[in-house]
TrEMBL record, chain A:
Pathway listed: Amino-acid biosynthesis; L-tryptophan biosynthesis; L-tryptophan from chorismate: step 5/5
Protein name as catalogued: Tryptophan synthase alpha chain
Cross-referenced NCBIfam families: trpA
Principal EC category: lyase
EC assignment: 4.2.1.20
Active site: E49 (proton acceptor), D60 (proton acceptor)
Organismal lineage: Archaea, Nitrososphaerota, Marine Group I
Subunit field text: Tetramer of two alpha and two beta chains.
A GO MF term: tryptophan synthase activity
Length: 268, 396
């Protein structure tokens, strides 16, 4: 069993859902990333999603786009990313998921990239532009390297396809909450709730389901937990805090924010 | 693999559908509807009607006698796509796709544009067919192609300047894709080149193939050589595809910008490597980490770090040769055609002209070269003026 799978099992026994916290590495700079990760861990995040920037992030809204640009302008390189993961791994055992775009892996060769990622301590991968049709080589390499492949599904994904994607996914299934790109939303749509309930019914016994895109408040988390998700993924909201907080106060702010979200994942 | 017939949306290794899951139903719906209209006589008749009466097809194949004489060598013919409504080949594709969107009962059309030619052609086709249009355009391109922005305004099309990334065509495509993801139910994405996820490369090729089909008819036989410029590659693939099995020498010309060695160019097939962008696997200009590089070309329409997947395939298969022309060579070709023939070509098309001049010299007088003159150059007059002014200054 992978570290991610173990985590979901552990949480189940505690009657909790997973809080998955996303940040963009190298934003606002490389050193601060480690500080932020410490804040997420202390705040009680269950899984950390580390973003590695791509020049053309088509699935991302303005907040993550901006973070990607900053990170790249400050010299983000995959080698530096791997060193950072190594450093994080020295401090914590928390499951780490890499989120980036297909070309970053493809250009280094799926197999070479994944064996390196695994060796530094990455547990799973999320590629928003990797469709199952194109995933044969990707899946083969991931399996060989014991990395979880976390695919995305959307509220408009049909049931037969949902089943197919769930079969290709390990760790958890990432459900996109909205028709749209990443970023904070002002409301939870009925179609999202319906999609979660449907996905739980169709594939929920086989794989945990996480909801992401637009999740930002404890109320969001409570609502999603109440309709049965196994994980909530918070991304752009973290980056907004990072954007708007003075460095000296950043870690504490992240700890507190993460704590309030985590509290809402506990099922009473 | 039979050339030109993609299997599972791929041309060999190239193409495919690397897209966010939200777009999958939209792309499947598009594919299904495209298959239907492909063999639907009434659709094709309707499209032919608009191509003839609205866009001005067929376009002439003009023997450029003066240019031929001044170069000395093979006969140079021009396929006059510049005479189409809107001033470029783009209308062949936008009429086809806008008609399809209408059949699919889509309420809203979005598009990206580089030089603005596809944006204008989209706005025109949409006005003609009574559809609202919105166009994404890199901020840098809105500045260097202000006339086209104003044309779109006049046509009632909303233009959104894109300020992310390099602020050119690739970023306009990113933004259009994001819009499509957000409004997937109501919106039709009218992609302007033979790029993107399957079925776009095939569909755009098919709509542009009218160029090559007409050339064959007009030449009575096939020419010895055909030449077209390649950015995304829609006018080129539309020229080549109908002749793919005819033993014609086919040459695509990319933008070498300030020179292939300077890194400031858009010659994807000449200098790129395989990768994934905008839903397709193709050749890309990218760094060692897979980050897409900023490109340069004097022509906004070729300023793109990727290329249509079928071109990538044809390059590797050896069916088509891909050459390049520098900004300087392009300006010279632009001036040569303007002076000898009184035809002002788009800077994009001037890439193809430049290469035609280069090789015509080396060929026999009985040889024929057809150049697809993909667009007219009115939009580029200011750029040429600035370039000449700067270079006259520099040479003093």
């Amino acid at each position: 069993m992978s570290k991610i799978q173990d985590k979901f099992k552990e949480l189940k026994s505690k009657n909790e859902k997973a809080l998955i916290s996303y940040i963009m590495t190298g934003f606002p700079n490389e050193n601060t990333t480690l500080t932020i990760v410490r804040g997420l861990v202390r705040g009680g995040a269950d899984i950390i999603e580390l973003g590695f920037p791509f020049s053309d992030p088509i699935a991302d809204g303005p907040v993550i786009q901006n973070a990607s640009t900053v990170s790249l302008n400050k010299g983000a390189k995959i080698e530096k990313f791997f060193s950072l993961v190594k450093k994080i791994r020295k401090e914590t055992d928390i499951p780490l998921v890499l989120m980036t775009y297909t070309n970053v892996l493809y250009t280094h060769g799926y197999s070479a990239f994944m064996s390196k990622a695994k060796s530094v301590g990455i547990d799973g991968l999320i590629l928003p532009d990797m469709s199952i049709e194109e995933s044969k080589e990707y899946l083969k390499s991931a399996k060989k390297n014991n990395l979880d492949t976390i695919f995305l599904v959307s509220p408009n994904t049909k049931n037969d396809r949902l089943k197919k994607i769930a079969r290709a996914s390990t760790g958890f299934l990432y459900m996109v909450a909205v028709f749209g790109t990443t970023g904070v939303q002002t409301k939870i749509h009925k179609y999202t709730i319906d999609a979660i309930k449907n996905a739980k019914k169709i594939v929920g016994k086989k794989i945990p389901i996480g909801i992401g895109f637009g999740v930002s408040t404890p109320a969001d988390v409570k609502k999603y937990v109440s309709v049965g998700v196994d994980a909530v993924i918070v991304g752009s909201a973290n980056l907004k805090i990072i954007e708007n907080t003075a460095p000296s106060k950043l870690q504490r702010k992240i700890v507190n924010y993460t704590k309030t979200l985590k509290k809402s994942t506990r099922v009473n | 693999m039979k050339i030109g017939m993609p299997k599972d949306g791929r041309f060999g290794d190239f193409g495919g559908k690397y897209i966010p899951e939200t777009l999958v139903p939209a792309v499947e719906e598009l594919e299904e509807n495209y298959q239907k209209i492909k063999s639907d006589k009434s659709f094709q008749n309707e499209l032919d009607y608009y191509l003839k009466n609205y866009a001005g097809r067929p376009t002439p194949l003009y023997f450029a006698e003066n240019l031929t004489k001044s170069v000395g060598g093979a006969k140079i013919y021009l396929k006059r796509e510049d005479l189409l409504h809107g001033g470029a080949h783009k209308i062949n594709n936008t009429l086809g796709q806008a008609l399809l969107a209408k059949k699919m009962k889509k309420k809203r059309i979005i598009a990206e544009t580089g030089a603005g030619q596809h944006g204008v052609a989209t706005a025109m086709a949409c006005s003609c067919l009574g559809l609202p249009s919105e166009v994404y355009m890199g901020y840098k391109d809105t500045v260097r192609q202000q006339q086209n922005v104003f044309r779109m305004d006049l046509l009632g099309c909303k233009v959104y300047p894109v300020k992310s990334g390099s602020q050119t065509l690739k970023d306009a495509i990113n933004e259009a894709i994001r819009d499509w993801i957000t409004n997937v139910d109501t919106t039709y994405y009218l992609l302007g080149s033979a790029v993107g996820p399957h079925p776009y490369p095939v569909m755009v090729r098919d709509f542009q193939s009218v160029i090559g089909k007409e050339i064959k008819k007009q030449m009575k036989n096939v020419p010895d050589t055909v030449i077209a410029c390649v950015g995304g590659g829609s006018n080129a693939i539309g020229t080549f595809y109908p002749m793919i099995d005819d033993g014609v020498e086919m040459i695509g010309v990319e933008a070498a910008g300030k020179g292939l060695k300077t890194g400031m160019h858009s010659a994807t097939l000449n200098a790129g490597k395989k990768g994934v962008l905008h839903g397709m696997m193709t050749y890309l200009l990218q760094d060692n980490d897979g980050q897409i590089k900023e490109t340069h070309s004097i022509s906004a329409g070729l300023d793109y770090p990727g290329v249509g997947p079928e071109h990538a395939f044809l390059k590797d298969a050896g069916n088509v040769k891909y050459k390049s022309a520098t900004d300087n060579e392009v300006i010279n070709a632009f001036l040569a055609l303007t002076k000898t023939e009184g035809i002002i070509p788009a800077l994009e098309s001037a890439h193809a002209i430049s290469h035609a001049i280069k090789i015509a010299k080396t060929r026999s007088k009985s040889d024929s070269i057809v150049v697809t003159l993909s667009g007219r150059g009115d939009k580029d007059i200011d750029i040429v003026k600035q370039y000449l002014r700067k270079n006259v200054k520099n040479s003093r």
